[in-house]
Amino acid sequence: METKNIMIVGVGGQGSLLASKLLGRLLLTKGYDIKVSEVHGMSQRGGSVVTYVRFGDKVYSPVIDKGEADYIVSFELLEAARWTEYLRKGGRIITSLQKINPMPVITGAALYPEDLDKKMEARGIIVDQLDALTLAEQAGSAKAVNIVLMGHLSRSFDFTLDEWMDAIEKSVPAKFLELNKKAFLLGREA
Amino acid sequence: MKQLMLGNEAVARGLYEAGCAFVSSYPGTPSTEVTEAAAKYPEIYAEWAPNEKVAMESAFGACLAGRRSFCGMKHVGLNVAADPLFTISYTGVNAGMVICVADDAGMHSSQNEQDSRHYARAAKIPMLEPSDSAEALAFTKLAYELSEQYDTPVLLKMCTRVAHSQSVLETGERTEVSRFYEKNPQKYIMMPGNAKKRHPVVEARTKALSDWAETCEINRIEEGRDHSRGIIASSTAYQYVKEVCGDQYPVMKLGMVFPMPEKKIRDFAASVGELIVVEELDSFIEAHCQSLGLAVTGKSLFPCIDEFSQNLVARLLGSGEPESGVKLEEAIPARPPVMCAGCPHRGLFYTLAKNKITALGDIGCYTLGAVPPLGALDTTICMGASISGAHGFTKAQDGKADRKTVAVIGDSTFMHSGVTGLINVAYNESNTTVIIVDNSITGMTGHQQNPTTGYNLKGDPCTKIDLETLCRAVGIRRVRVVDPYDLRQTEEAILEELETAEPSVIISRRPCALLKYVRHAKPVVVDSKKCRSCRLCMKVGCPAISMKDGVAAVDHTLCTGCGVCTQLCRFDALRAGEEV
Fold first, then answer.
1. Number of domains in chain B
2. CA distance B532 to chain A (A)
């Protein structure tokens, strides 16, 4: 199988590490070769962060380069727009509608661009948007945005719901299991 | 059973399986998780040392006592530990000793992009370089075997993309190893007479390891269809080459980058047309090939700056890269890392900036005080440089200018290498004001304990070094503590100390707002009718504050109710939660 590439992008602290952990667990049980590349350290402090998930028969590079991503899963609209060059032809952006102002916007040095979703679509990019924050709150916690997004991503793959749920059970603490399962289903149905 | 494991966790697994019993490290991205993961194995004693030099010397002591030992650090940490490094190369080991150093090509979280491989050659210590998690585990175990077989410490070189990537591996069982310590002054006391006899031993060892490099399995040749080119690579560069070329060209994959084989490389060069070395950062493998008199292409084609990727390798090898996706015409504002909402450092940096104070900074979260709108720092060099720098700055200015210079250093960085600078301030009597930003944790690397927190790596209570007592003990008479959430108190203390003709320490104390035990106050509320849109509250650079429809707005999901902004508002528009 040719290597599949998923980028998970967002703002430091939004929980992308749990999303990649969940994907990794699932893909491992399916017998793929996998590489997941994360960023730790300074950029975690509210900066732009990206996690690369690659799987296939044999994966060499731990990173995804421009023109390679099959999916970009984004926690935030501006971050989705930041990485469009990484999308391959026919690739898909799955993004939360949430907007978080970066410091240059807060200080007035830059503007948060308007209608980014429409501008991306106007350039022929497939943009699949959902209100992941509201769905996560509905499930019981704003922190479950990551699992809502994974739920929505799950529609693009042939893995069974049981396989996803099994991976969730292995990835989250027991006391948050029901919340996360609910968040996953809300994302999957959105 | 197959597992998906982070490169750093794989090194820790390797430590466990190899019977390592002692780990001492100082945290530093991208090396930190090795030691954190090692601490989870009950069979391994693991600790945070105050700095890398102490860690390496402790690990040496442990191997001398007969147990396999380890220390881990980031690339710049090896600079701090370079002193013992060069001499334990001479003494060799008793039980095996492994030193992990993690480079940061691309400077994701570092102040420079130095290439640690030079240390292996300079200190004449073998260096293994894994390219994924499975190799990280296997090479760690191999490193101990080499260490004991060749009587040498062994360097294990990681880099950000290997350290912080998860890949598939299979784990094994632990084997316990222990040796007896026997007194051996000729081997372990490195005074000139003995050291002179050890140096030839080191040279012979390097020769023996070069011979091993000729036949060892970790230096392997992967056959290719097209012999017009042959590529030598290691670490992530190998992964990018394979990603791009597959089995097109023969590839020599080096698992040990010092010492390197001679005959094996000559034979490989003779079997291919153009010999190409693909390596991140400096010319190292290429320089070795050149020293053998071989015609080689390396840094004339590949940059010595930044990390590589598959597209870069494809482009430079002329293999054709994928078409980039759409680039939006829209300017996408950058999103640099920022000080968190509620960060205790914010009030301090606001005060420094407001009073136009020259602040020599240090390494930690508080380096973010340099970023607009605060822009409160003047330098960042290395661990501890704030205090010694401020000492020199102040001495050079004595009597010539208004003294408006301070050093800003974190609690963990102060314990690492700030205290020696402070001793110099006291001893040589400079009118330096040192501000220790004490957030009661090592913040930047993700909340590691340090000697001032009262807890050890395993999370157990332990001796807490008292900063005030320590500063007084080294000869500073003026030591005071302020709460950086209280802007007036902070400003008064700084201005008063700057006007006093005597060295001083101000401890700006407030635990990191991200610590689990820190209780947050109710979010600040905005009385939008009172807001005059003066934007003064925006000057603290808090990610929770923005202007919406011309008036200040506070993001309740981010605000911790620290109250710094409420002290700035002159119109009473920002107030502590629950009041309005």
1. 4
2. 17
